[in-house]
UniProtKB/TrEMBL annotation:
One of its GO terms (biological process) is peptidoglycan catabolic process. InterPro entries: AMIN_dom, MurNAc-LAA_cat, N-acetylmuramoyl_amidase_3. This is N-acetylmuramoyl-L-alanine amidase AmiC. The lineage of its organism: Bacteria, Pseudomonadati, Pseudomonadota, Gammaproteobacteria, Nevskiales. The keyword Signal applies.
Length: 457
């Protein structure tokens, strides 16, 4: 009998030793989902399902230490759709976590292996059943383009040639129908790097890259929206993570004319300093540091909590397309202008635009740049990056580069050709206006020869 009791005790001890410890529980809220992240000492098995009347999400996790579960689940700060959280032990020893939610959701869960500073993680995303109308963060409408505005940006283009039936053409001569550019604003997608589960690089005093990049991005957005005929959209406007591919998709969804990603540089050497601007490299990084930096940034999906299968398997096709289009050259033009402006407020790490395989720069039809504002791992530059005044200077310098770019490039616009009218002033027939796509040419320069209209597809 004594031997039997000892055996039972040993088995119990073995079971307790194998139970994973819950080391933290975090919730993140984004416009379209709520994320729960369980930090664990070991990998666990889990199952997730939903109940209704009322709406609930149930998470069963095997082999979790009960004391650690009690500590963190009771103290978790509720966010997003989660209104209440409770837990209990199942008969089979598993821990059951029940989430009461404010509306129906589709749960998605996956495990992440240890990566960098993070150990084993269980991620549960509560995705809204009815998604938001747009994942891109809305921004105030820009001021309308005045009739003379295009002339201030570029020389007036030659009148477009419009082919119309002969009878209609004769009527047009008599009534002088109006032809005008539609008031479509220039759209700039502003991407604040990292966010949520992924803090990015961290400075000596604890300043996080995700906070600095968001602060500068918000300032840049405000400045852009103050410009007549320009509109900014953000890939994220809060402390939550957006996957690298999703950032590009959001820019394409709003038909962005430019993509600007804001980051902070980092290296293990605290003496490294300066600003750098990157564009995509189809053939490899321009330096060892550029290669290291791209690897760090592209691993953000692992840190931020994105499944491996969400990676881009069409990279080769995208790069081939890039090499055959003017997007790369346009990106270089934008990057050079930004680098020149940023060099007025900070030392430059390199005096030329750098290239590396950043995932967020892979939109084949949108000129894209990634700005490494300064080294957050440098004590002096970390102090500057945390300063609102310096953040504003950074944003203003980026805007200067953007405005300079659009003095040479203009995105495709629609031209509305009004139907004949007997009135002295032409009017647009709203029922069926005819739309003609016109590709406006870029100023030619000795340094480049961009094909007209090729910067957008």
């Amino acid at each position: 009998m004594r031997r039997f009791l000892i055996l039972i005790a040993l088995l119990s001890t073995s079971h307790l030793a194998s139970a994973a410890e819950l080391r933290d529980l975090r919730l993140w809220d984004s416009p379209e989902s709520t994320r729960l992240v369980f930090d664990l000492s070991d990998e666990v098995q889990h199952k997730v399902f939903t109940l209704n009347n009322p709406d609930r999400v149930v998470i069963d996790i095997t082999s979790v230490d009960k004391k650690s579960a009690t500590d963190f689940i009771n103290k978790a700060a509720l966010k997003g759709v989660v209104t209440k959280m409770r837990y209990g032990a199942r008969d089979d020893g598993a821990t059951r976590v029940v989430l009461e939610v404010s509306k129906p959701v589709n749960p998605k869960s996956f495990s992440i292996q240890p990566n960098g500073a993070y150990g084993h993680r269980l991620v549960v995303d509560l995705i809204d059943v009815v998604p938001a109308t747009s994942a891109v963060v809305p921004t105030p409408a820009p001021q309308p383009i005045a009739p003379a505005a295009p002339a201030k940006i570029i020389p007036a283009p030659p009148p477009p040639v419009v082919v119309v039936p002969q009878a209609q053409a004769q009527a047009a001569v008599m009534t002088k129908p109006g032809i005008r550019l539609t008031e479509k604003p220039i759209v700039i997608a502003v991407d604040a790097g990292h966010g949520g589960e992924d803090p990015g690089a961290i400075g000596p005093t604890g300043v996080q890259e995700k906070e600095v990049s968001l602060a500068i991005a918000r300032r840049l957005v405000r400045l852009i929206n103050e410009q007549p005929g320009m509109k900014a959209v953000m890939t994220r406007d809060g402390d939550y993570y957006v996957g690298l591919r999703e950032r590009v998709q959001r820019a394409r969804k709003v038909q962005a004319d430019l993509f600007v990603s804001v980051h902070c540089n980092a290296l293990h050497r605290p003496d490294m300093h300066g600003t750098a601007v990157y564009v995509l490299s189809p053939r490899g990084a321009t330096s060892e540091h550029a290669r290291w930096l791209a690897n760090q940034e592209n691993s953000a999906d692992l840190v931020g909590g994105i499944e491996i299968q969400d990676k881009d398997h069409d990279l080769a096709a995208v790069l081939i397309d890039l090499s055959q289009s003017a997007t790369m050259e346009a990106s270089f033009d934008l990057g050079s202008r930004m680098l020149s402006s940023l060099g007025q407020i900070n030392n430059l790490q390199k005096d030329q635009v750098q290239q590396a395989g950043f995932a967020v720069l892979k939109a084949p039809d949108i000129p894209s740049v990634l700005v490494e504002t300064a080294f957050i791992t440098n004590p002096e530059e970390e102090r500057q990056l945390a300063s609102p005044d310096y953040q504003q200077q950074m944003a203003e310098s980026m805007l200067s580069g953007i405005k300079g770019y659009f003095q040479s490039y203009r995105p495709q616009q629609q031209v509305v050709v009004n139907e004949p009218s007997t009135k002295s002033e032409p009017t647009v027939r709203k029922a069926k206006p005819r739309i003609v796509e016109v590709k406006l040419k870029r100023k030619t320069s000795k340094k480049s020869s961009i094909r007209s209209g090729s910067a957008r597809s």
